[in-house]
């Protein structure tokens, strides 16, 4: 058995025990996790891409399994009802030949319907209809139990950290190749294809749609296209590209200056990179992520002043709200089997923690603990619709801002494990 497989055994042992406790606290005899079902396009016979429900993946790592069910009961090996009908149109689902499968009772089945449950009180979790829950005589998605199981995903096991580290290592190979494609004059589509080729993962298996933004497209936060034509001028590239490894996600962003970048762009890029490294150094158990997010805004204000995009004091820039126009997203989020992992806006005691009124997009509002894996992704963008309400401000050097607009924006994103000994950056730093 490899070291990773040994870690996976420990992961499953811990999960078993934690589920036993959560089920007892919430007064159920077991929980049935539904992997989910891909949605079919209306009036069509084609399906959307699919990823299984996070709690199902937490046990199995299997994101492609559709119509499958996992029954977890205290004192029993979990039963995986694997939807694998005989089919000559498709290859029936198969599990890998790996030691973890021996920890489960596997029941291959033809039907996508839920299995019959033994006598007792059960919850069913996942994208199930009320008719299915009624038929099972099980409670669908009870919020207290769902929150308790979400909480089990917040602190990562050694196995999960290994998977996240490997996902990062592989994704960074893709980033290196993608950068070469950009330097060689590639269009967004060429860069995306170069990335996918390097990491050898199909697009629909990625944890999110890669963002490949050349020039102004880098300022569209979740830019969703891949332009097949390279622009005449090469100002910049923002690449936010991930990878999945055994169900676990990498979420990495790099920004590069192109050969036609204006001279002001490179110092800004260096400034955001340095800010990101300073913020990573501050990661530690007990630190408020909201306070770190605020520190990002302080750093951005200082950078905007230093780079003479705004002629004002750092305090005045913060007061004006301009940093939120230049960076409307949060500093980062929890990362795991989902790219935006669960449990980020609730305290360890289960109290909801709403984001600050000025930061509605902040996905992580809790205090950091050892074992959390977070993204750290400060950004600085020229987004015309957000800057427009500030047009009247004479302290903004609008001619300099406009020269940067064709570069879209800057984001630098790493994935970092919080430990008692300090931050452990899972993202290789060479690219
Ligand atoms: N890739 C999406 C994000 O950075 O949150
Ligand atoms: Mn990202
Ligand atoms: Mn992210």
Could you explain the architecture of this structure?
The model has no long low-confidence stretch (mean pLDDT about 100). The protein is of the alpha+beta class and about 425 residues long. About 40% of the residues are buried. The chain has helices at about 5-25, 55-60, 130-135, 145-150, 160-185, 190-200, 265-280, 290-305, 315-320, 320-325, 385, 400-405; strands at about 30-35, 70, 80-85, 105-110, 120-125, 140, 210-215, 235-245, 250-255, 375, 380, 410, 415-420, 420-425. Strands 4-3-2-1-5-6 form a 6-stranded mixed sheet. The protein is about 35% helix and about 15% strand. The chain has 12 helices and 14 strands. Helix 7 (about 265-280) packs antiparallel against helix 8 and helix 8 (about 290-305) packs across helix 9 (about 315-320). It folds into 2 domains: about 5-150, Creatine Amidinohydrolase, Chain A, domain 1 (3-Layer(aba) Sandwich); about 160-425, Creatine Amidinohydrolase.
Notable features of this structure?
431 residues; alpha+beta; binds glycine; 12 helices; 16% strand; Creatine Amidinohydrolase, Chain A, domain 1; single chain; globular
